[in-house]
Amino acid sequence: MVLESHESFSPAEQLQLAPYVTNTEHPVFVLTNLPEVIKGALFSRYSRSTLGLRTLLLREFLQNDEAGFQAPSTSQDSRLALNKAQSFYDRILDGYGDDSIGELGGAHLALEQVSILATKVLEDARIGGSPLEKSTRYVSFAQQVNGDFQFYKDPRVLASAQAELYLETNRKLFRTYAELIETIRDYLRKVLPPEPDQPQAAYERSIRARGFDLLRGLLPASTLTNMGVFGNGRFFEGLLIRLRLQTLQELQDLASAAEQELQQVVPSFIRRADPTHRHFCSQLNFQQQSQNLLNRWIQPQIESSTPQSASVELLSYDPEAEIEVLAALFYENSELSFAQAREAVRGMSDQARENLLHQWADLREHRRHKLGRALEHASYTFDIVGDYGSYRDLHRHRILTQERQRLTTRLGYTIPESLIDAGLESPVRKVLEKAASAFEALEGEFPQEAQYVVPMAYQLRWSLKINLRSLMWLVELRTTPQGHENYRWLAQQMFQRVHEVQPRLAQLMRFVNLENYPLGRLAAEVKQELRKQSS
Q1: H helices within 298-447, ranges in order?
Q2: Measured between alpha carbons, how far is 417 from 370 in angstroms, rounded to an integer?
């Protein structure tokens, strides 16, 4: 059935609209060739008008001299059109004063040559943005540019007496990483030879990925990487404010550079992130007062931080979670109040509840079969110690609450067993210990900047509060065979901790993989190679 719009446009209007909408006849269409700020303005007006979006586009912009919109033929015309549209849109924004209007337009932002340390701040926001980061598994970080390895050279440290220590520590880490690449690949080929029927190309890609996985712990937090971020205007405003509230010079510089580029696409959405805007000034004052308050109450307990193994501790959970999950399931599939749904569940026998959960779990044929939001009524809080590389991977899950401590060398480091078996323990341990000494020397004067010399092999402590639905996605995704062995172990431990206290809810996570895979990427690479050969 073809849906027909209730609106009709003259031939001249259709001609005007044609470049900016995918059709003028049907009620479902997409906006095209419009600046993001105009899309946002349109949707904000849309929510307060009885008119259709295409009619608003005609009246408010295409036929409105005040809006100043014109089809740009050059970059200068485009800039002029955007400036005029921005002024028009700002009045709409001021008139409505609704933060959600900033979610009606977005931008793709590239952030290249940023440190791994900076990426964590860039990825902290959970809503409105989608980040993608260069992988340490598929790309070598051994390349040099202009005769030096690619790591962030903090200007404050380089202007101090610690400059040479900072530079040499980072360079030594990169040199060791580069020197061991071929050695570890040769070792892997020896202990994990290919099967006779395996495509050689797939095998070599797996060896390459496994080698990078084993060596990534040598990469310092200063390592330069590339990021791409798609986000709506509200996300970018929050991102710029958060960056500007940080003390690291790199983050301040990134905020200025990002704002300059976003001003060309979504200027109205990010205006409150300007350092002179009253909204930002208020945020800065609030943060400073909060930090001063906490400094008066909390004394750093540095002496309690000692090296320890990776661990996952379940701090808290709801003993009534099973009742709550099933009550929520009953509630959305009935006309009961939530209290009545609880009583209905409590009235079931223990065996009946177990059978229901078991049958529900059996409906899932693969991990992308997601159970409903009833699972969000069960939540768990974990205290985790794991290497910084694993944190980077687990940090990307959005629907949860994570709090990390400052990156230091005091919790110790991990060396993969394969590096030890390959006879590489001595050079790896030597360079990791050198990094710890450099961190201690830098920390007194540069407590934040000292993080840059900490390699990813060092342990970080962070807490994670997560509901069962999100936990299911995390552990099933991060325990797949192709996952990095360190974060696979952490995800497996999260599952095990829940299974120990609530096995019947844990069984819903039926695609958790508890096995160990020496060459985890191989199956995926073989499948990819066979697809290439058959195409």
Answers
A1: 321-332, 338-346, 350-362, 388-394, 417-421, 425-443
A2: 36
